[in-house]
């Protein structure tokens, strides 16, 4: 289980710090909603290690992630868009998630098949649709094989049919691979469709419900 415990953070000059407390279970999607500017991206940046908290813990199965640099954290981050290098093939983009010089071919093909893109590995990322690009990014998340997956408005740039299919894929992958998926979204329909647990961020604090 991922537990955010007494995590405090303030930007320079901020009088009242954020104070985050939350839990996320493996195999489940935990949603974070809140008004624009409420601090949702700040929370994701703390989880990813791009910001350092004033105090508190980010506990994953008994291990505190706070001292770890971003690249050492068991975390993947997927944004609304711009997750891929457009000039590289889908397969090369997926292979970027592999450590070192691991033998990539089969792993990459298997991951692309799992996200519904079998046989499309040689296609240049620039030629893919928005939904296909998000699937490639999810395939890279698969080969990275990190248990905490942070999604920052990942469906917002997609049309209705594509967003419904993509969010179902996220749910399927989360359950199949035991990801602790944390979904930041403004869209209640996405949250209602796939999240098991919800938090609302307001006035610097998370409230469950
Ligand atoms: N580097 C920074 N320095 C100072 N203040 C910042 C910095 N980054 C963000 N903020 C402020 O912190 C607050 C929270 O920003 P954050 O981006 O986390 O909100 P958000 O909920 O993700 O917003 P949105 O939904 O619009 O993306 C905002 O008031 C923002 O202006």
Automatic annotation (TrEMBL):
The keyword Transmembrane does not apply. SUPFAM superfamilies: P-loop containing nucleoside triphosphate hydrolases. GO terms for molecular function: ATP binding. Residues 2-209 form the ABC transporter domain. Keywords: ATP-binding, Cell inner membrane, Cell membrane, Membrane, Nucleotide-binding, Translocase, Transport. It comes from the Bacteria. Belongs to the ABC transporter superfamily. This is Thiamine import ATP-binding protein ThiQ.
